[in-house]
Amino acid sequence: MLRNIVLLLLLCLIYSLEASDSDKCVTVNVNNLNDLVLKTFRPKPCMTVNINGSGKMEILSSDKFKTPLSNTPLAQVRITGGTFSIDPNFFKQYRHSLDVVTLENNNIPKLGYHVFQDLILRQLELRSNNILFLSNPFYNCSIYNLDLKHNKIDHLSDITFSYTRLFHVNLANNSISIIEPHSFPDTVITIQLSHNLLSSIGQNIFSNLFNLVLLCLAHNRLEYINFEKSDLGKLEDLDLSFNSINNLNQAGFSSLRNLKRLNLRNNHIKSISATNLQTSKLKILDISFNFFINFPHASLPESLNVIYVFGNPWNCKCLFDIEDSFSGNVVSNTMDCKLSQIVNAPICISYGGLCVDDRNNTLINAFSKEVSLYSNDCRDLLQNVIFDYEH
Question: Mean pLDDT throughout 69-82?
């Protein structure tokens, strides 16, 4: 009896070791995709291909992977270092098994029509591939995380993600200057669009995204925004920092009824209407490094926990009024990086104890000078009030 138990345990151990070994990736180094056919390696469901080629354009097609992977249910594939276009039939052969696809540091100028058609992926990583154009490559796909950052995409249209179930998309560090209405599917939960070339956001751009929770538009060239007619009832995090916004009169923040964190840091905003702040769930507001002299603090919701105000040319009486009105909350007038160590950093200017809206360039010039000295240290630390979500 005991002997049988021991044998059974040994068999279980051997099986578990074999199973864990089968989960490991095989890495293949080749000079070009054609070399894959000649390579001899043990097929595994996870595969990494490192291409050390001359940069000559190739085609990533099904025949490249036929030997010895034709009978292997490939779950994860990673390809780096190549210059190629993708045969629409390549990924279809693994559509029942693929879970993660990573194509990075390649040269793939165009993702053609239906390249990833019918795939159900947990992760699709397409970063740093010099992609210029997306010609509806995701048709009839379901993708939980799509990473397209560090490419050269300049335009999103209503067919870019058409007929796609997409939940989290990262398009940071591209050259996007145009987003057409309904460019994103209504399934999207988070959108990362920082470090692009957007100059305006019209009221219809995100009008269909009623599931959106996080939207990051930091580090663009935005001068105008309007969310008034956008159906963004679930949006909780909005990052508009490091842009050129100077007018928020038509921003439509009041329509964002679930907004909890609003980052307006480092813009050119001089004033904001009280109606724009009437969002009942706002918890964190960052207006640092703008041109505020006064602020309609009385219209801020009771839900607000923290407001960051440093780096504005405040009238002292107006600033003290804000602090007094939030005696139970936090009004942060300090920096959480090296700027907080500047002994002579100005805070506000007094006008004989009166709260007047006179513009004073002394503080504006002083802040501009100090921020330029420490921009590399501070901006990386302070640009995000946005949090990651898991759904």
Answer: 79
Output the pLDDT for position 59: 85
User: 65: which DSSP letter?
Assistant: G
d(C-alpha 87, C-alpha 115), whole Å: 7
The lowest-confidence range among 121-125, 156-160, 319-323, 379-383 is 379-383
pLDDT of residue 56 exceeding 80? no
Measuring CA to CA, which residue among 156, 86, 70, 157 is closest to residue 124?
86
Relative to beta strand 84-86, strand 58-60 is parallel
Q: What is the per-residue pLDDT for 299?
A: 79
Strands 58-60 and 25-30: unpaired
Q: What is the total count of domains within the chain? A: 1
Q: What range defines the domain where residue 79 resides?
A: 26-382
Domain membership flag for residue 11: no
Distance of CA 24 to the CA centre of its chain: 30
CB 259 within 8 A of CB 239: no
Closest CA to 321 of 274, 354, 347: 354
Asked if the structure places residue 21 within a domain, the reply is no
At 329 the pLDDT is 59
With respect to residue 359, please indicate whether it lies within any of the assigned structural domains.
yes
Instruction: Report the CATH number at residue 217.
Output: 3.80.10.10
For residue 365, count other CB atoms closer than 10 A to its CB: 12
In the structure encoding, which two tokens stand for residue 194, read together? 């920082």
Q: How confident is the model at residue 361 (pLDDT cuts 50, 70, 90)?
A: low
3-state secondary structure at position 121: strand
Whether residue 389 contacts residue 353, with contact meaning beta carbons closer than 8 Å, is answered with: no
DSSP state at residue 348: E
Residue type present at position 71: N
DSSP string, 255-276: G-TT--EEE--SS------GGG
